[in-house]
Structure formats: C-alpha cells, structure tokens
Amino acid sequence: NKVDFKLQTPLHIIMDVFTRNTRLAEEITRVLVFNGAKPNQMDSDQLTPLHHSVTKKHQEGVELICKLNKVLQSRNKETFDFDLAGGDKGFTPIYYALERRAIPIAELLFVNGARVCLRFHNKYEPKEWKKTETSVRRHILWKM
C-alpha cells in the first residue's frame, strides 16, 4: 500500500492503464488485492481505484472488480465500495459512469449492488440527475 507523490497505490495505477494489457493487468490486480491492497484507499484527487477504472471507461477493470468483490466478501475481507463518493464532484462510481455516458459500466455497477439514489459527500443530490436516474433505472430493469 505504498503511495506515490499523488498518493496513488499500485492498484490505482493498474486501474488507470488496465486496457493496455488486460490479461497482465488482471493478474497484477489479483495479486495486489489478495495480498492486502486496500481497495478503497483514496489518492490526492479523492478517487479510489474503482473511480479510476470507471472514469477511464475500463469496463474490463470494473468487471474484474465485481468478480473480486464476491471473493473478498466470501473471505470476509474489505471489498470495493461501489457507493463511496469521491473526486472534486463527490460522485459515486455509478454517477461517474453516467456522466461519461458509460451505460454498460453503470449497469454493471447497478447489477452488482451500487445504489442509484445516493447523496454525494456534499450532502445534496443534483436535481439534474433525477431524470437520468429514473431513465437509467428503467433502462437497467428493462434489460433484466
């Protein structure tokens, strides 16, 4: 869990470059996570490794995190928090996915337990998201 000058751990960095070599990134991520990497550690921008994967639109990284969460949960280890607000906007990962129009990632997070109706760390929920939330919920539930 050593950090660089931006307070990023190796897990943050691998999520940033996940799609450059997906197979290698998956192996490295597994090694890091199963050897004590903190999945919810925030960097200097107040982003977790999951936030990094979502904001870069790395769907494969988010898919791996969802799989790893199930294993971590079964082992009673700290899991990736899908509802943790972060960044300068204080968005949860699902809201960053929606902001970037990464609907498949938003769906993946939703299906794996991310909550859509959630206040941000600044204690308010932007009104402009209300219509988006409803349409995303309908879209996701319709596909199920």
UniProtKB/TrEMBL annotation:
This is Uncharacterized protein. Coiled coil: none annotated. The lineage of its organism: Eukaryota, Sar, Alveolata, Ciliophora, Intramacronucleata. SMART domains: ANK. SUPFAM superfamilies: Ankyrin repeat. It holds the Pfam family Ank_2.
